[in-house]
Amino acid sequence: MPTIHDIADLAGVSVATVSRVLNHTGRVSDKTRDKINAIIKQTNYVPNQAARTLYQKRSGLIGVIIPDLNNPFYADVVTAIDATLQQSGYRILLAVNTGANQTKYDESIAAFEQNNVDGIISSDFSITPTNTPTKPLVLFNSGLIDDNINRVVVDNYSGGQLAAKTLIKSGAQKVVIQHGPLSLPPIRERFEGAVAALTHAHLDYEIQLVSDFTLDAARSAAEALFTTFHDFDAVIAANDIHALTIAQQAQANQIKIPQALQIVGFDGSLYAEVSQPSLTTVDQHASTVGTTAGEFIVDLIKHHSSAAHPLRLVKPSVRLRESTMPQ
Amino acid sequence: MPTIHDIADLAGVSVATVSRVLNHTGRVSDKTRDKINAIIKQTNYVPNQAARTLYQKRSGLIGVIIPDLNNPFYADVVTAIDATLQQSGYRILLAVNTGANQTKYDESIAAFEQNNVDGIISSDFSITPTNTPTKPLVLFNSGLIDDNINRVVVDNYSGGQLAAKTLIKSGAQKVVIQHGPLSLPPIRERFEGAVAALTHAHLDYEIQLVSDFTLDAARSAAEALFTTFHDFDAVIAANDIHALTIAQQAQANQIKIPQALQIVGFDGSLYAEVSQPSLTTVDQHASTVGTTAGEFIVDLIKHHSSAAHPLRLVKPSVRLRESTMPQ
DNA sequence: CTGAAAGCGCTTACAG
DNA sequence: CTGAAAGCGCTTACAG
After folding, report:
1. Among chain A residues 14 through 43, which have CB within 7 angstroms of nucleic chain C?
2. Same domain? B299 vs B204
3. What is the CATH number of the domain that holds A255?
4. Are residues A138 and A204 in the same domain?
5. Same domain, yes or no, for A149 and A163?
6. Which of A111, A309, B33, B326 has the most CB atoms lying inside 10 A of its own CB?
């Protein structure tokens, strides 16, 4: 691997001049610039990022922490972050924190600092950022919390409302609202939004707590749904996986969708799309979340942290499909 | 951020001694070691990786390139790579090369080199590694190619055989084999394995080419399947998404699964699991692929490239579920 | 067991 | 427009 000295020698100039050409900085005569560029091309020279980072204290790296790549929401977010960052010349240092383990989270933050990342994007799902990193930080997937931390949040309250309003418009009479642990702010907001909309419309509803978002949990929840509750004609599912298992259980029970049972999911994932019947769902716009988070962190780096508005909101929207009556 | 000089000053020793404590190298008296460690802890000192990388020419970073995070196969692979690498103290520099774009691929490789990665793990799916990187390289998801490049390959030929043998054992009479573009080695091997097993058993079969693995392609392929072919009682699907849409189309046509139609998928993804009925599939063991690739690259780095056996094989296995007759 | 010093490959004032 | 030199924060022979 050639160094900047090699290039300088070959061009018969000093390393300072080569550096100026590399960084498009300072004045360099066209002639020397062309000469240097030709040599760079021909030698396949690439500047050593470690040396740059050491001096400039910026690495061009962004640390990204997510709990689960198999969750299509996170997969979409990461894909969008990567596409956005690459446009600004940044690269992703990835940490998959399976199961949202606090120790692994802290280790990842430490490793990010050690690697001089310029910023950090992290999912806030059921994790507490302890010793706040010294780098610009953007959290996504958290609740609508006003604590002056930079966040990209999906408006879950509106999302819950949207799910409920969809069922109201399509003539549901009695709704079961599924929800996950209310200790998680996004879940709670979503739930409250749905309750508010149904109450406002004087619609009858019952609620079912589900333990988590694994397939197994969804299957037993779907089974419990039909044994525990009666006379309901619509469900706001905890998410798309739950919506899917409810649809399957309903079909096993010969319950017609959407005539006898309407279902609204939450996520906007592929699961809702591949299902038969396809499922109406509240789309969280994962890739918008990722793009927004990527742009946010780049802004923060450019303007030396401190955003005027630490909250960037992403509005969910409804994808109407076959599991609800036509509106 | 404190530097090694700050620690040395506080401890009243030289930076060399601090460095020795940091790296557990050389002889240091217990007393000074304890003192230095105490100060490190108390100041939250973390060594600057850029400085280390600059001197040692190793960064602790592994570049990883994959084409699609939404594909559960890749999601599993990356998750397993990350878990494996973290155990050895390495971190992932991620590049999502959506659509397997050759230019983006080359750019990512260049960025990896610039960042002094210690090794590269890349999916080989429909991409050609051009100017071979100077770093240890492990390719996965490629065909069984004997070109002395380090590869983790799923034995697709066996996979195809397994799919066919499963149907043979469960009494299928006429099979349709779906397959993607045969220009892709893994696809071709899979196809050839299935054909070989069916031929060997003197079973009748027909073949259907599918364009790709998107949901749309799968849907139209599934539709075409039932209009184009007749009298078949089993399908080896191009992958799990295709298997899923075939199952849905069959149900729409009132064809009973598995009595009137048996289906075998390929991937071992969640899609085959969430489906109703659940789908028998050939599991590629994505997380084994990831773990193997992670261990492979660590081995290569330790032993200065050049593996004795540049091919590490992962054996697929059948997951018997409801879409085939009990064996 | 410990320290002084060179050097890893860059960038950026500072001079000219 | 260009160069000599200092310095970013480490590690590792080399001396002692």
Report:
1. 15-16, 19-20, 22-23, 25
2. no
3. 3.40.50.2300
4. no
5. no
6. A111
On whether both A142 and A204 belong to a single domain, the answer is no
Residue A259 falls inside a structural domain: yes
A326 domain residue, yes or no: no
Residues of A in Cβ contact (< 8 Å) with B61: 93, 115
Q: Which nucleotide is nearest to B19 (CA to C1')?
A: D11
Our measurement of the distance from residue A223's CA atom to the centroid of its chain's CA atoms, rounded to an integer in Å, reads 30
Q: Do B94 and A98 touch (CB under 8 A)?
A: no
Strand C footprint nucleotides (protein C-beta < 7 Å):
1-5, 7-13
Strand-pairing partners, residue B177, are B207, B236
**CA dihedral in degrees (B326, B222, A69, B101; nearest 10)?**
140
* A265: helix, strand or coil: strand
Please check whether residues B161 and B236 belong to one and the same domain.
yes
3-state secondary structure of A65: strand
Work out the number of other CB atoms within 10 angstroms of the CB of residue A5: 11
- The number of domains in chain B is 3
A163/A244 same-domain check? yes
Q: How close, in Å, is residue A86 to chain B by CA atoms?
A: 9
Give yes or no: residues A102 and A204 share one domain.
no
| CATH, residue A40 | 1.10.260.40
A83–B98 CB contact, under 8 Å: yes
Confidence (pTM):
0.90
What is the separation of C-alpha B67 from the centre of its chain, rounded to a whole number of angstroms? 11
- Which residues are CB-neighbours of B284 under 8 A, at least 6 positions away? B73, B154, B159, B266, B267, B268, B314, B316
Task: pLDDT tens for chain A, 327 residues: list them.
Answer: 889 999 998 999 999 999 999 999 878 888 889 989 999 998 989 999 999 999 999 999 999 999 889 888 899 999 999 999 999 999 999 999 877 788 888 889 989 999 999 999 999 755 565 556 678 999 998 877 777 889 999 999 999 999 999 999 999 999 999 999 998 888 999 999 999 999 999 999 999 999 988 888 999 999 999 999 999 999 999 999 999 999 999 998 999 999 999 999 998 888 898 888 999 999 999 999 999 999 999 999 988 766 678 899 999 999 999 999 998
Q: Which nucleotides in chain D lie closer than 7 A to a protein CB?
A: 1-5, 7-13
A110 contacts B46? CB cut-off 8 A:
yes
Q: Does residue B162 sit in the same domain as residue B276?
A: yes
Domain that holds residue A40: 4-47
Distances in whole angstroms, Cα of residue A287 to Cα of each of A100, A122, A141, A162, B215? 21, 15, 12, 20, 19
**Cα separations in angstroms, B147 against A210, B136, B151, B167, B299:** 52, 15, 10, 34, 19
Structure tokens at B185: 């080695």
